[in-house]
Amino acid sequence: MAVYRNKKDDNFTVLDNNTLQDDNLSWKARGILVYLLSLPPDWEVKTSEIKRHASDGITSLRSGIKELKEAGYVV
Length: 75
Fold this sequence. Notes:
mainly alpha
């Protein structure tokens, strides 16, 4: 398997690898976290708005956010 990386000069998010490689988080929670980190700092988090941009249901979104809260990534 090959992984292709593109050099980015704009419209990208820098993430801490420790966060992405935290084995205590499910892939679902990691995906939600990456999405949240890609938003502007002044963006107000609303589950209904996040749900509009996701294919999973609201129950899945809520459980992923709960997981992030329990791990200390979301307050």
